[in-house]
């Protein structure tokens, strides 16, 4: 049997694209290397309202906490806070989220095979060969949703990424609705985050461009006398790169982390990864249904318009922001703290970080106050 589409990887973007492909009456098979979806977990699960709207029930039903405040801390302890009247971010139970997506995929008649680690994808004239464990399956089209760092197809260069580590700590939480972003030498080149998952547990993690994340997270806990019980340890790679400008081959498309669809400012990849995977699924479905070759110009245009252009801007912002020295973070956060009551940020901008800067520039009064706060 030849499937219409084989999807490599049963993560959030593989499952989301598969649901869209099934809704367009295509036969879909997912090959997943692990024995179930969602495991091993690595992600914090902080998402915007746009993600909840985009995914619908599987995301809504996975929310374990709501956030309306973000606190930014500089290396010397200056703080700048952003508070919102409504909840702007949501923390998902990441394992439940993937299970909920899987349930929707199976309800639509999708098929998933576990413990199938794809080793190679070969593009042939009129079909694609997907190779795993000495087997080969043939398909008209393949979605590569295998995350960061997995090279399955000739000519593919994965986006740059770096290791991160995260602990789930059992301890009382002061404000359940507040996330912290800490710019500290332990997370040099990125940041350290604290995200509460309940009244008595939170996730704390950091990313670094070297291999010493665990060492530095442990030293941060020690330095700050953080003592709660470590319930779980998660690790994974954070993408810090531009998205691929052409995330496709003949009869194959890359989605999610595999395509670099992640915000370099925070490493958050769920919104753009799922958005990009749904766009690709709709375009591919349209052409496969008519038995026509996929129009890659259309695919590239739509991905560029809705995903790639924003991620390119976000990468540029992140590249400069994370190159700041400790002293520069201190100056910046101290200056922002002085005008924080005057800053009003559109809560719908959660997925468009570069627009904060544009808003700032377009608000000359605020810009002047900001410059004054540097000097005073
Ligand atoms: C520490 C950390 C914290 C994060 N926090 C957030 C956050 O708060 N918010 C946010 O939006 N994003 C966050 N992210 C990013 C987010 O986790 C990813 O962007 C998202 O998981 C990407 O989904 P994906 O489906 O593309 O890839 P993945 O989630 O990596 O899924 C890939 C799937 O493919 C399978 N697979 C891999 N290779 C093969 C193979 N050869 N054969 C078969 N199956 C294979 C894997 O087992 C997995 O199931 C975080 C990432 C990290 C590392």
CATH topology of the largest domain: FAD/NAD(P)-binding domain
User: What ligand molecules are bound, each kind once?
Assistant: flavin-adenine dinucleotide
Write down how many β-strands occur, each being a DSSP E stretch of 2 or more residues.
18
Instruction: Give the N-terminus to C-terminus distance in angstroms.
Output: 72 Å
CATH secondary-structure class of the largest domain: Alpha Beta
Describe the sheet with the most strands.
8 strands, mixed
Report the total helices: 10
Low-confidence stretches: none
CATH superfamily of the largest domain: FAD/NAD(P)-binding domain
* SSE topology string: EHEEHHEEEEHEEEEEEEEHEEEHHHHH
Helix content: 25-40%
Q: Which structural class do the helices and strands define?
A: alpha/beta
What is the annotated CATH architecture of the largest domain?
Answer: 3-Layer(bba) Sandwich
Strand content: 25-35%
